[in-house]
Amino acid sequence: MNTPGALAEAQRRAAALELIAFDVDGTLTDGRIHIGPSGEAMKSFSVRDGFGLALLRRAGIRLAIVTGRDSPIVAVRAAELGFDAVVQGVGDKAAVMRELCARFNVAGAHSGFVGDDWPDLGAMVQAGFCATVAGAPPELRARAHWVSTTPPGEGAVRELAEFVLRARGQWEALCAEYVPAAAPLAPDGTTRP
């Protein structure tokens, strides 16, 4: 996304999104898995990412989780955020993406996938819009239409949400719901007097 042409193409693809699927570990989290004597004990999710996901849902975009691990923690977080689909223990993420597109009647060109490592490549390259996070391997960054500047689990998904919503022309209207009418935003994002 280094050139103006690549940015314009990423925006065009983002504007067409109807469904976005996310890997979990290293995408919605920082990639660390805390394991105790009884198994997986904890994952850390960003509240800012959660708000970004809520904004995407309010904008009419369906959300899905497609992950290789099976985790009750992920199921709880997905339920809190109102994800449309949660598919865990996946070996072939590309096949699951095709199934999700069929289930929700979404053309592949209107789907997106966000991943962080090689097991995500198949789903990423078949999606109409593919994204990855800061620090992802070069093979993912080279194929992604969009790469976060914020680390995973620390606001990368919130950054993605803003990019998608701006591309769709929905950012200002959603933001206006939270900003008092007497305090409009300046172009640089600060509040004007």
Question: Care to describe what's here?
Answer:
There is one protein chain. The protein is of the alpha/beta class. It has one domain: 3-Layer(aba) Sandwich (Rossmann fold). It is built from 8 helices and 8 strands, in the order H-E-E-E-H-E-H-E-H-E-H-E-H-E-H-H. The strands form 2 sheets. A 6-stranded parallel beta sheet has the order 5-4-1-6-7-8, with helices on both faces. A two-stranded antiparallel ribbon has the order 2-3. Helix 5 links the parallel strand 6 and strand 7. It is globular and about 50 Å long. The N and C termini lie far apart (35 Å). The model has no long low-confidence stretch (mean pLDDT 92).
Overview features:
about 190 residues; alpha/beta; Rossmann fold; two-stranded antiparallel sheet; 8 helices; about 40% helix; about 15% strand; globular
Blueprint (SSEs and pairs):
Elements: H1 4-15, E1 19-22, E2 34-36, E3 39-42, H2 47-58, E4 62-66, H3 72-81, E5 85-87, H4 93-103, E6 111-115, H5 121-126, E7 129-132, H6 138-143, E8 146-147, H7 156-167, H8 171-176
Parallel strand pairs: 1-4, 1-6, 4-5, 6-7, 7-8
Antiparallel strand pairs: 2-3
Helix pairs in contact: 1-7, 2-7
Stated plainly, the CATH topology is called: Rossmann fold
* Total DSSP helices: 8
Provide the succession of SSEs. HEEEHEHEHEHEHEHH
According to CATH, the homologous superfamily is HAD superfamily/HAD-like
Report mean pLDDT, rounded to a whole number. Answer: 92
Could you give the distance between the termini?
Answer: 35 Å
Shape: globular
Stretches with pLDDT under 50, minimum 5 residues: none
By CATH, the architecture is named 3-Layer(aba) Sandwich
Structural class designation? alpha/beta
Instruction: State the helicity in percent bands.
Output: 25-40%
